[in-house]
Amino acid sequence: MKLADANAMEQPSAMCLDAEGDLRLEVGEGEGKRSFVICSRALARVSKPFNAMLYGPFAESYSRKVAPDWTVALPEDDPEAFAIILQIVHSNFKMVPPTVSRDELYQITIWTDKYDMTEILQPWAQKWVDGLEEAGDLHTGEGELLWICWELGLQRKFVDVSQKALDSCYLDEESRLCGPHIERMQDNVHIVSLGILGHA
After folding, report:
1. Which residues pair with 143 in a beta bridge?
2. Burial class of residue 174 in the structure, from the number of CB atoms within 10 Å of its CB (0-12 exposed, 13-18 middle, 19+ buried)
3. pTM of the complete model
4. CA 51 to CA 89: how far, in whole Å?
5. How far apart are alpha carbons 171 and 176 in whole angstroms?
6. What percent of the chain lies above the pLDDT cut of 70?
7. Which pLDDT value is given to residue 138?
8. Rg of the chain over CA atoms, in angstroms?
9. What's the CA gap between 43 and 91, in Å, rounded?
10. How many CA atoms lie within 13 A of 4 on its CB side?
11. What's 166's DSSP letter?
C-alpha cells in the first residue's frame, strides 16, 4: 500500500499532493496543524536545506530508514503558506491562487527564504504584487512590502515602496526611524536584514 493510501485512511484531513508520495509533512502545531503527503524528491530538488534534511545525516533522514511511514514535523512553519508552496513544488499550477493578500505573500516569502527556494515563485511574483496594488495592500505594512519586493527581486517596486515609506517616516524621541504602520523599523528583523537602515 502506498503511503498516500495508508495515511489517507488514518488521517483524512491530509492533503495529498502526489499519489505516489513517500513523505508526510506535518506543518504547524495545535489546531492549525496540517499534513501533506508529498514526493520527497520533488521538494529536495528545489531546496538545498530540504535536500540536506531529507537525504543528509539528519534525524529526518534517518526516520526514512527505520519508520514504515516517513514523517517530518515542521511545527514552527506556516501551514497555509506551505500549502501554496507545495502546490508549486509539485507542479499543480492550477491549484496556485492567482492572487494572494499581503500577509499571505509575506508568509510565503518568509518560508521560501528559509528553505532557499524563492526562485520557484518567479512565475507568480509580479502578478501577485500587482494584485496587492489593485487591492490597496501597497499602502500599508511597509516593512512586509519591502521584504516581499526585495525577496522576489522586484527592483522597481522595491524602490517605489521604499520611497513611499521614507516619505511617511519620522524619528522618535530616541532618534529611531519609525513609520506609520511600524513602531520602529529597527524592530523588524526582515527590514534590518536588508541592510538599508544605516545608523539613523
Report:
1. none
2. exposed
3. 0.81
4. 13
5. 5
6. 76
7. 56
8. 19
9. 11
10. 13
11. H
